[in-house]
């Protein structure tokens, strides 16, 4: 027994694999997309709104594919799905470097989005819920922080590569790097469930000992609300709208580089600013994970929304100051980290783990709808007005509305408990 305790639980190796996969896929592919908008539109003569429509197509594909992905993860080998997902996502991103027409982005964003559903959205939360019964919030935080770690390295590098080698080379380079590193990582570390290694989830024995009502024949993972009941509740709809608004808030990240260049900065500085964004995500993900373990997902989410108003006001009032601009972007990234960390944790807090994949995959449709509406809308607003100020005001309003949505969601949870649906 003593020797077993000294060994590193395999859950941490799974988390390492998740962190490398999500960190590279998000930091090297998804978040970096905004750096290419201005260079591509200027080189090919495409309007910002027209190019940014590929974000909308991506979001539609994501919304359609999320429920399908949830079912596929329950039936097929997780490693095979993730390897295919990485090839679709990073391979399609690399193909952007060969395109000469906006239709290329419209076409290749479809397989890219399908792969991203597995790699960046579904796999991490599901695997962490399977492997971690203790330190769940910390694990979620580390997963999201990984995007910040790799983004802090890759985004300034991408900005410099675009400036020196061009956007085509940079697309191809990033896509290939992600595939070369992530595929072996998936093979070496990822397993769907502890039973495949003859183990229990990390902290399962401790969780059981803390509750007199949980027996060996009734594992803690089965507690919660069924998906059918959850989808009819006010808590679910409040969470759905919360996902829509917080994702719309985070969507502004794709326009940080064009915003910076609109203020008068160059693409290299924009890449550095996005590095600050990634550092903010790193610190925010770890902070929100630890905070949620200590004070709960509800209080942490409300704190995040209030904090989000600070960088918005800074960007509205003093964008011309380089130091303050970078600081504001870093704080903004800190807050946006709450999407990846608090989204899964809020879902678990509201509905439990009984049918988590089915509930979460449906709730994050709000995320996809936000992409359909917010991402291209921001592009067209900037194209028409020549300014991002009105977008920032809208972001501030959404942050305030989200506070009320969080409160509403937890009132809905109480109704579920009172009705006897939580068991």
TrEMBL record:
- Keyword vocabulary terms for this entry: Membrane, Transmembrane, Transmembrane helix, Transport
Q: Which residues cross the membrane?
A: 12-38, 44-68, 80-99, 105-128, 140-163, 169-190, 235-255, 267-288, 300-318, 324-351, 363-384, 390-410
**GO terms for CC?**
plasma membrane
Keyword ATP-binding in annotation: no
Q: Tell me, what's a Pfam family for it?
A: MFS_1
What InterPro entries would the database entry show?
A: MFS (IPR011701), MFS_dom (IPR020846), MFS_trans_sf (IPR036259), Proton-linked_MCT (IPR050327)
Spell out the PROSITE patterns in the cross-references: MFS
Residue ranges constituting the Major facilitator superfamily (MFS) profile domain according to the UniProt record: 11-414
Main location class: membrane
Tell whether Transport is among the UniProt keywords: yes
A molecular-function term among this protein's GO annotations? transmembrane transporter activity
Localization, UniProt = Cell membrane
Name used for this protein in its record: Major facilitator superfamily (MFS) profile domain-containing protein
Top-level taxonomy: Bacteria, Bacillati, Bacillota, Bacilli, Bacillales
């Amino acid at each position: 027994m003593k020797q077993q305790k000294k060994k590193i639980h395999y859950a941490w190796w799974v988390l390492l694999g998740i962190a490398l996969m999500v960190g590279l896929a998000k930091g090297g592919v998804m978040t970096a997309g905004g750096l290419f908008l201005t260079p591509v539109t200027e080189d090919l003569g495409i309007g910002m709104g027209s190019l940014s429509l590929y974000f909308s197509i991506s979001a539609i594909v994501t919304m359609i594919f999320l429920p399908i992905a949830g079912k596929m993860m329950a039936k097929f080998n997780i490693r095979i799905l993730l390897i295919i997902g990485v090839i679709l996502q990073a391979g399609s991103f690399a193909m952007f470097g060969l395109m000469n027409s906006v239709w290329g982005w419209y076409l290749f964003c479809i397989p890219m989005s399908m792969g991203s559903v597995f790699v960046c959205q579904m796999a991490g939360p599901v695997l962490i819920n399977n492997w971690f019964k203790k330190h769940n919030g910390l694990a979620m935080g580390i997963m999201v922080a990984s995007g910040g770690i790799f983004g802090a390295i890759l985004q300034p590098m991408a900005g410099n590569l675009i400036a020196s080698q061009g956007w085509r080379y940079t697309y191809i380079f990033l896509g290939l790097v992600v595939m070369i590193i992530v595929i072996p990582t998936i093979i070496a570390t990822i397993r769907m469930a502890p039973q495949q290694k003859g183990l229990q989830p990390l902290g399962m024995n401790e969780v059981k000992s803390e509750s007199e009502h949980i027996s060996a024949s009734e594992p803690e993972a089965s507690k919660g609300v069924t998906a059918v009941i959850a989808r009819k509740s006010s808590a679910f709809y409040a969470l759905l709208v919360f996902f829509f608004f917080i994702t719309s808030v985070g969507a502004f990240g794709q326009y940080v580089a064009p915003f910076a260049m609109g203020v008068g900065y160059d693409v290299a500085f924009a890449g550095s600013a996005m590095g600050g964004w990634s550092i903010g995500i790193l610190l925010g993900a770890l902070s929100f994970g630890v905070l949620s373990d200590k004070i709960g997902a509800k209080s942490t989410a409300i704190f995040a929304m209030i904090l989000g108003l600070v960088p918005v006001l800074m960007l509205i009032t003093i964008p011309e100051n380089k130091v303050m601009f970078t600081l504001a972007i870093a704080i903004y990234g800190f807050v946006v980290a709450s999407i990846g960390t608090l989204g899964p944790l809020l879902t678990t807090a509201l509905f439990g783990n009984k049918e988590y994949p089915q509930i979460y995959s449906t709730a994050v449709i709000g995320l996809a709808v936000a992409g359909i509406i917010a991402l291209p809308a921001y592009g067209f607003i900037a194209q028409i007005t020549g300014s991002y100020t009105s977008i920032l005001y809208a972001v501030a309003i959404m942050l305030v509305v989200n506070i009320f949505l969080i409160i509403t969601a937890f009132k809905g949870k109480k109704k579920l408990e009172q009705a006897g649906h939580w068991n």
